[in-house]
Design a protein that fits this description.
This protein is mainly alpha-helical. The protein has a single domain, classed as MetI-like fold, CATH 1.10.3720. The chain is 86% helix and 0% strand. The longest helix has 57 residues.
Length: 229
């Protein structure tokens, strides 16, 4: 092989490597987007359900006695057991099972932390609201909800990165073969370990994005908390 042919061969190999890298880059980004969407939708559903359940439990004692053990029981259910059941309940082309798994995972930390915050009311503030003859809803809106924000965001920061983990784990057990979970499995099965580690890194980055978003929301919602820290 002449020098010219050698240079041509090397250029082709470099170009082939670049095309492969671009292809993997696009594949990883697409998988991360799908997993991120499932985690985000599940996080939103679990967050809404957890906050509403905490508000009801803080005001109605029978609901508190019913919801608290139920939330603890939901937290004890393994994700690997939920996903196959949900996959048989919905179409194989649906992302609903994975989003439900994320919502169930998220519900417990949001519910427990928000409920604790709603109960942490200063006796002086409670007495002041009673002296104004404020309604229970007014007391909740003016005193309980602002006081519960630090507890709520503690639960959100735990749930945000956990939502990504739940979404990835739920992708291993049937359903659509899209997302970071199947991509990791496929790369590992083909012994493409550099690609597998690249996808794992993408999963870590996605979890950090969710956590940083929760942290940013906390700072925007409670500027006074940042100033007093």
């Amino acid at each position: 092989m002449t020098a010219q042919q050698q240079r041509t061969f090397e250029r082709r190999q470099i170009e082939r490597g670049r095309r492969s890298l671009r292809l993997q880059h696009d594949t990883i980004l697409t998988a991360a987007r799908i997993t991120g969407e499932n985690a985000l939708v599940g996080l939103a559903v679990g967050l809404l359900a957890g906050v509403v359940a905490a508000l009801l439990a803080s005001r109605v004692r029978p609901l508190d006695e019913m919801l608290t053990p139920l939330a603890a029981g939901m937290a004890a259910i393994p994700i690997v057991a939920l996903t196959p059941i949900f996959n048989t309940m919905f179409a194989s082309t649906s992302n609903t099972p994975r989003r439900l798994v994320v919502a169930i995972y998220v519900f417990f930390p949001i519910f427990v932390n928000t409920l604790r915050g709603l109960r942490q009311i200063d006796p002086v503030h409670a007495e002041l609201m009673r002296s104004y003859a404020a309604s229970p809803w007014t007391t909740t809106k003016v005193v309980r909800l602002p006081g519960a924000l630090p507890f709520f965001f503690t639960g959100l920061k735990i749930a945000s990165s956990g939502a990504v983990i739940a979404a990835i784990v739920s992708e291993y057990f049937g359903g659509l073969q899209k997302g970071l979970g199947p991509a990791i499995t496929s790369a590992a099965a083909a012994s493409a370990y550099p690609r597998a580690w690249a996808i794992v890194t993408a999963a870590i980055a996605l979890g950090l994005v969710f956590y940083l978003a929760a942290l940013l929301a906390e700072r925007l919602a409670m500027p006074w908390h940042r100033e007093s820290a």
